[in-house]
Design goal:
Blueprint (H helix, E strand, L loop, with lengths): L2 H23 L2 E9 L10 E4 L5 E3 L5 E6 L4 E5 L6 E4 L10 E6 L17 H18 L28 H53 L2 H8 L3 H11 L3 H6 L2 H18 L4
Parallel strand pairs: 1-7
Antiparallel strand pairs: 1-4, 2-3, 2-5, 5-6
Helix pairs in contact: 2-3
């Protein structure tokens, strides 16, 4: 190869290389979908914008977005309660109109350590009060020895009941026992009331969770959704809804694509079964 031919080849290679660089710098239209990394459900109102740029957009109710960008730009995905994510287009997607799917992760919050005190234990309170009562009786034993006067006969006449008079110390012990019994009954009543309140609160929480669960199921699978997907209407639509008979757990856990795939599979068999009816 002569020197002239080498120069022409080098110039042609430089020209093609510059064209390649210019092609890589050409803006492109990027489309995509943002989902939750755990549930794989679409995320709406996610902010999508170019780092150090002015262009941006947000995802719609189905998690879809589109934005015009340069192949070398860095995209930022930001949403409330989720960790912010950055994305750079790989070389394989820097041509045409690429489509991507981004999964965002929930942001975890580190809480401060707290001390939780349990409810009052009536049995423990009774034991504590009994210990106090027993200790007082040991420290101040009641004097129940009656001093018999010298003039009083030691024998009890026939037909007469012998009565022992209790001292003031025994009366005080009976009063203390009555107070302690009243306190124990009060603690028992409060504990029973608290148990009933806890049961009511737990039942209310379970009821609210069940209502939210059913509302979520209805939002994913209802007459409107099925009508838009299949084009059925009227009595035929109601028959198809009954024919589908999906269980709630499947509707809850299925992605939008999986649910539509199941609907179309049911629709094919439904049309074959009800053809001509």
């Amino acid at each position: 190869m002569t020197l002239t031919q080498k120069a022409v080849a080098l110039g042609l290679w430089c020209f093609l290389w510059s064209l390649s660089l210019n092609a890589q710098d050409q803006p492109l239209l990027l489309a995509g979908k943002v989902i939750d990394s755990d549930s794989l459900m679409p995320l709406s109102s996610v902010h999508v914008y170019i780092l150090n740029g002015e262009d941006g957009t947000i995802t719609n109710k189905n998690g879809f977005f589109s934005i015009r960008m340069n192949p070398s730009d860095t995209l930022i995905f930001s949403a409330v309660s989720y960790q912010t994510s950055q994305y750079v287009l790989p070389d394989s997607l820097k041509k045409g109109n690429p489509f991507i799917e981004i999964a965002l992760t929930l942001r975890t919050v580190q809480l401060k350590e707290v001390v939780v005190y349990g409810q009052l234990n009536p049995a423990a309170v009774r034991r504590y009060l009994d210990n106090i009562k027993n200790k007082k009786r040991e420290d101040n034993p009641p004097d129940i020895q009656r001093k018999v006067p010298s003039a009083e006969p030691k024998t009890v006449p026939k037909g007469r009941k012998h009565t022992v008079g209790l001292g003031s110390s025994l009366e005080g012990g009976a009063a203390l026992e009555g107070v302690l019994t009243g306190l124990a009954n009060l603690f028992n009543k409060r504990a029973q009331q608290q148990k009933r309140i806890n049961k009511l609160l737990e039942a209310r929480k379970n009821q609210e969770a069940q209502i939210a669960y059913q509302e979520f199921i209805k939002s994913k699978f209802n007459e409107k959704v099925v009508a838009e997907a299949t084009g059925l209407e009227g009595k035929r639509l109601l028959l198809f809804l009954e024919y589908c008979n999906f269980n709630s757990e499947f509707i809850y856990s299925a992605t939008e694509y999986e649910l539509l795939e199941a609907i179309f599979a049911k629709l094919e068999r439904f049309n074959q079964y009800y053809q001509g009816r």
